[in-house]
């Protein structure tokens, strides 16, 4: 029998026997869910539904409940869509839900072995998390203020010079900050190699790490299938991503290494961690590898996420000009026109804070967070959750729950956070950054970044609607992209409608309250 036939037989036998071999370890029923077909389970339903992944899961939750399950190729996934279920399982019982499902597409085939976001719950993951946390805990945040101020001012200058390129400017804004903090590297104005590198790798990272996008995540044996076999397109995709994903780890680190050798290195996450852990860059120690992994992880995690939140904010301002006027009045009243808003102004800017909260809620950057996995068998409200189950929290569903955030959750409405009767809804920060022991460790830095950018943009510009050839305002479609991290303007809503108006009377950034920086 040829190798292919052997592999196919092995595959079919594995799939057919999986349900039979699975022990029924508990008498309680599994959570409700779609029945699915023999062997493939709900794969057909999933592949037929063209909705964004979190909308599809939200729709299923309306049919099967806030805790439902489905099976694909013998792999069980439980989806949590309510605050109660997420808090109980992922927060209160985080000892059992801090593992990750296997992500062979991402970690092995695409070469992202540095990505500790995808590591199993293990000592190896703990070592990375501790190393990262040292430089991203709240008490360190002030050390980054100057870098955040300079990056925000540069963003304003770039927007003023070429407003049409606003998507590129916000991308550069967030990557310039992480490059500086992590490697001590200053982003070049044009053709920066590391900026290009991270965006070259981004498609593979966002798609590959979204668990379940590829069958191989459900059936890891498929990673051994030769890439020339029909249907093995995922392997070719992974090979295409592999090069830039690997380079992401090596190239910026080599730059730091050279800078250290030449005595020109600026203090950064890399140099400070190396000093603290007595590593010499290039010594090939275990800890050198850990620091390199953490650095690469931060470069990636910190680049697209904050940029995505800012893109959603800009879209929200284009859609809701009256909110912008109100926020600008608040800023003018508190800060005046002689300087830009700063970190210490934050407590005095309640409406700007409400805009920030609503941006995190409405434009949910990571709508399905990142998949967790149950380590041991568990029971929730009379339903059995077997060990090994993948557990997905639908953060988007919770952040759009009318019971928590009031009416019209699809509308951008910061007033929902301005309630003075003591019944303000829960802070979106509780759901926007993941859960339990795997909660985003970069969230303090991300919130500071978004706050400063929002408040300084509002103080500097009025973000106006584009005008079409007939003189009518263009109202962009608030479309969101699919994947691990989404984007408000999606390069489809705002950019397609506004940026492609390049040579017409288009999107307008009007110089605002008239101060200099
Ligand atoms: C708006 C900005 C951001 C959002 C919405 C966001 C969201 C998330 C989410 C949902 C997770 C998964 C949590 C879970 O598994 O439950 C995560 C993990 C992570 N994030 Fe962020 N993040 C943001 C910014 C950042 C930044 C700026 C950094 C670093 C500088 C960062 C570093 C990380 C790391 C290292 C992990 C992996 C944690 C682990 O698996 O233990 N994030 N983030």
Automatic annotation (TrEMBL):
Pfam families: p450. Pathway: Secondary metabolite biosynthesis. The keyword Iron applies. It comes from the Eukaryota. InterPro entries: Cyt_P450, Cyt_P450_CS, Cyt_P450_E_grp-I, Cyt_P450_sf, Cytochrome_P450_fung. Keywords: Heme, Iron, Metal-binding, Monooxygenase, Oxidoreductase. Its cofactor is heme. Belongs to the cytochrome P450 family. This is Cytochrome P450. It comes from Marasmius tenuissimus.
């Amino acid at each position: 029998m040829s190798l292919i036939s052997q592999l196919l037989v092995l595959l079919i036998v594995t799939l057919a026997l999986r349900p039979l071999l699975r022990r029924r370890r508990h008498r309680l029923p599994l959570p409700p869910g779609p029945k699915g077909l023999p062997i493939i389970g709900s794969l057909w339903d999933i592949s037929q539904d063209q909705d964004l992944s979190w909308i599809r899961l939200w729709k299923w939750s309306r049919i099967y409940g806030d805790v439902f399950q489905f099976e694909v190729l013998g792999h069980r996934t439980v989806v949590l869509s309510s605050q109660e279920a997420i808090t109980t399982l992922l927060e209160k019982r985080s000892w059992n839900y801090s593992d990750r499902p296997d992500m062979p597409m991402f970690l092995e085939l695409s070469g992202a072995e540095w990505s500790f976001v995808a590591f199993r719950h293990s000592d190896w993951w703990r070592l990375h998390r501790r190393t990262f946390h040292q430089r991203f805990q709240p008490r360190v945040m002030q050390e980054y203020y100057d870098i955040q101020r300079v990056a925000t001012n540069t963003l304003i200058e770039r927007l003023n010079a070429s407003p049409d390129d606003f998507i590129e400017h916000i991308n550069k804004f967030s990557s310039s900050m992480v490059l500086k903090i992590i490697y001590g590297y200053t982003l070049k104005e044009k053709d920066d190699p590391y900026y290009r590198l991270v965006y070259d790798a981004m498609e593979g990272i966002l798609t590959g790490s979204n668990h379940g996008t590829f069958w191989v995540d459900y059936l890891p044996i498929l990673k051994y299938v030769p890439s020339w076999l029909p249907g093995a397109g995922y392997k070719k995709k992974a090979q295409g991503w592999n090069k830039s994903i690997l380079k992401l780890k090596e190239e910026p680190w080599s730059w730091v290494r050279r800078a250290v050798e030449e005595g020109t290195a600026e203090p950064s996450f890399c140099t400070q961690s190396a000093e603290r852990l007595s590593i010499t860059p290039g010594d090939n120690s275990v800890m050198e590898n850990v620091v390199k992994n953490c650095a690469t992880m931060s470069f990636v995690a910190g680049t697209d996420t904050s940029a995505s939140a800012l893109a959603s904010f800009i879209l929200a301002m284009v859609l809701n000009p009256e909110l912008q006027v109100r926020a600008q009045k608040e800023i003018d009243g508190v800060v005046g026109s002689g300087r830009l808003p700063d970190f210490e102004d934050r407590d005095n800017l309640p409406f700007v804070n409400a805009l920030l909260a609503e941006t995190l809620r409405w434009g949910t950057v990571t709508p399905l967070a990142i998949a967790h996995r149950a380590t041991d068998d568990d029971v929730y409200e009379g339903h059995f959750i077997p060990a090994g189950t993948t557990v997905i929290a639908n953060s988007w569903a919770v952040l759009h729950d009318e019971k928590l955030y009031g009416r019209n959750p699809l509308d951008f409405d910061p007033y929902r956070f301005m309630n003075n009767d003591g019944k303000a809804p829960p802070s979106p920060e509780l759901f926007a950054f993941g859960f339990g022991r795997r909660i985003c460790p970069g969230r303090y830095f991300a919130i500071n970044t978004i706050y400063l950018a929002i408040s300084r943009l509002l103080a500097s510009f009025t973000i106006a609607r584009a005008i079409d050839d007939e003189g009518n305002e263009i109202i962009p479609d608030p479309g969101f992209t699919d994947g691990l991290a989404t984007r408000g303007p999606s390069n489809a809503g705002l950019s397609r409608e506004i940026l492609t108006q390049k040579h017409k009377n288009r999107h307008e950034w009007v110089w605002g309250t008239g101060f200099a920086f």
